[in-house]
Every structure is written in structure tokens, then in C-alpha cells.
Amino acid sequence: MAEEQQHEVKRSLQTRHLSMIALGGSIGTGLFVASGSAISTAGPGGALLAYVGIGIMVYFLMTSLGEMATYLPVSGSFSTYSTQFVDPALGFAMGWNYWFNWAITLAVDISTAAIVMQFWLPEIPGWVFSLVALVLIFTINALSVRSFGETEYWLSLIKVVTVLIFLVVGVLTIFGIMGGHATGLSNFTMKKAPFVGGIPTILSVFVVAGFSFQGTELIGITAGESATPEKSIPAAIKQVFWRILLFYILAIFVIAAIIPYTSKDLLGSSASDIAISPFTLVFKRAGLAAAASVMNAVILTSVLSAANSGMYASTRMLYSLSLQGYAPKAFGRVNRRGIPIMALFGTTVIGLLTFLSSLFGDRIYLFLVSASGLTGFIAWLGIAISHLRFRQAFIKQGHHVSELRYHAKLFPFGPLFAFFLCMVVIIGQDLHSFATWDWQAIGVTYMSIPLFIILFFYYKLRYHTKLIPLDKVDLSKHHLDK
């Protein structure tokens, strides 16, 4: 094992891998299925406003992350940056928070894969498909970082091509070239459209949009294994912004134009609602008979892609936590192929146990899923805070912004805007429960917050850490991966 300790993660991810990983991470069931419920809730205008708002916020977060990741490219970046630029207690809480998020998401995704497969093979028990999915994802991640990157590239490409075909078919349907009759933009003005339910409902859709975009921050995790981070990360961020805006905003516009917000078919929000996915409905409206089966196959690749990313992200975060002394040293071991193999095993075991809890105790499983609900938004808050502190420390210590290889856009507005919007989304997650003082619902919805606070104060009180003064922030570019 001593020999194994000396190996390092391999920098073999190319720019095309990073671009597709960041893009693929944000195109999933959130767009393919849950986008319909967003239109149903807030109307076409409300849904578009929410997705544009979150899209802009995510872009600013990506540029913040890009500035730090090109300066200090390490695996498990959020935890490292919080530790180095803010407070070790924040790094500890941020790292475990993010690992927990993806380890639970991995379990949710392998459960979802079973639901999707039962669309075709309802007589086979779901756990069989889940086990096959978990073994497949483990194998891909155990082979090499390049096998992860290639798999993610092709799975993401399938999703991207699907969205492009959907946009073409959708526009042709709107103008009546396909599907028989032109719908035009009449759905944008019917009844209470375009904005339905006012600010509270639009705010609730911000949450749906936020969940849809989670995964774009994976580009920061991959920085430690990028062959040329100083070139790949800025290129990936630039491409991803336009693609996300193009795909999400145009896709929601097309759905809203073809299917009225009053349609009950838009209420589906999980992978079990394939038959009423907005994408399926639009393809059917255009006269494509095999729409449900085709979309089911696309959603299966989408779920496997999310599980693949989840396994990678949680493994690298556990590896990073070990290097920083926040997790057992065993998780820092890297094999000859550059894989943190013990961290991979550890994450797989947690994913498997969480999945098994869905078979033997639905309440435990639902509790874990609820507990991970807001962890992605907490990670985004950490990125914004770390970037503000990084830039302030950089200037305070006599450096100039021109020294940075990549500059975040509109600093300090970008991270401040992202911080504010993240806080609004977190607080607005379930305002209805506060209005009715439903303590049980409040507890389930906001569970991630006390868990994060407990982690933070546990480390702070045990090790007596303090906010690092700006002139003492460590800006040295030593690689923590070594």
C-alpha cells in the first residue's frame, strides 16, 4: 500500500471532455421531465424568467470557479478553496456536504434507472436493474479517468442531440409545418398567462430551475485531472454558458408554446412520468409515434450520465478530504491508473446502502434524499464566498488581476449576485410551510442547513479555527494532489 500512496491522479481530461461534463451535468430529468411542472406552476413567462435568472447566476458561479480553478487546479476544489481562502471549518463542512450530496444522488439515480427500465421490462424486479447500473458505473470509474471522461462525453452528446432535434421539431410544430396546425404564441396569452400566481410561485420555480442546473459546477472538480486547465476551463465555461441558455431557454419556450400551462400532462416531475414528459408530448404532437420509447431511452442515458458524474464527483471529494486531513488517510490512496480507489469503494458502499434502504425502509431513504435537498445550493454559496475572499486576498497581498490566467466577469457583482440569489432560493424553498407553520414539512425541506451548520461548528469548536485574515491567506500554488 505504501507504493500505492505515491501514485497521483492523472491529468488526462481534454477540453471536449470538460465542456460536455459541465453541459451534460445540467441537462437531465430536470429539463426532460420537471420543466413541465415549472411551466404548469408559474406559467410560460414565470418559468422562462426563473430559468433565465438561475442561468445567469450559474454563469457567474462558473466564472468564479474558473478563476480559482485555473489558478489552483485541484480535485475536490470547493473544499480546498474554502479551507485555503476562508476558514478550515468551512472547507471541512463544504467538502462533507458536497460528498454527501453526490453519494445520495448516486443512490437516487440507480433507483431511477430501475424505474426507467421497467417502462420496457415491467416483469423484472427493479433492484436487478439498479445493481447492474451500479456495477456499470463503478467499472467505468475504476478503469481510468479517461474512461469516465469518454463515457460522460458520449452520454452527454446523446442528450445534446436530443435537445437539438426537439428544438427543430418544436419550432416546425409551432408554425404548423409538423403536427397539422400552427399553435403560434397563443399559449403565452391564454387565461392568466404569461405569469401565473405572482412572485411566490415564480420563486418556487426558481428552486426547480436551480435543481435543473446543478451539476455545472463539476467543471471545478475535474480541474485537478484536466490536461491543460488554464485553457480547458475558460473554453468550457464560455461554451457552456451559451449552450445552457440556448438549450434551456429555447426548450422551455418551445414546450410553453405547444402545450398550454393548464394541461394536466405537465404535472409529471419524476422519471416515472416518461409518458407525459413535455419532450414526449411535443414529439407526439408532431406526429412521431415512437416518441415515448425514444425519450425513455434518452432519459435512461441521462440518468446513467448523472450517476456517472455523481460517482466521480463524490469519489474525488472524498479523496480531497483525505488529503486535507478531513477524512481517513486510506481514502487518499491512488492506484497505478490514477484512481483514488479506496474513495471509490467508500462512495460505492454508501450509494449501495442508501439504495438498499429504499428496499427495506422507504422512510430512511426519503429522509436521506430530503437531507441532501439543498446541499447543491450550499456548495454554490461556498463557491461565491471563496471567490470573494480569494480576489480580496490576491489584491491585498500586492498582486494584480492581470496576473490571473482567467478573469471572472463583473467582479464583485458576479459572486455577490450568486450569493444573494442562492440565499433567496434556499429561504424560498418552501414558503408555504412557513405560512401554515407546518413544522414537519419545514424540518424535511430545510434539513440540509442544520446538518451543514453542525459540521461547521463541530470542526470550528474542536480545532478552534478562525476566519483567515486576508494578508495570511495562502496563495501559493502548491498542488494538494501531490
Automatic annotation (TrEMBL):
Pfam families: AA_permease. The chain crosses the membrane at residues 20-39, 45-62, 99-121, 127-145, 157-178, 198-219, 240-261, 286-307, 339-358, 364-385, 406-427, 439-459. InterPro entries: AA-permease/SLC12A_dom (IPR004841), Amino_acid_permease_CS (IPR004840), APC_YAT (IPR050524). It comes from Lactiplantibacillus dongliensis. It is found in: Membrane. Keywords: Amino-acid transport, Membrane, Transmembrane, Transmembrane helix, Transport. It comes from the Bacteria. It is a multi-pass membrane protein. This is Amino acid permease. Residues 17-466 form the Amino acid permease/ SLC12A domain.
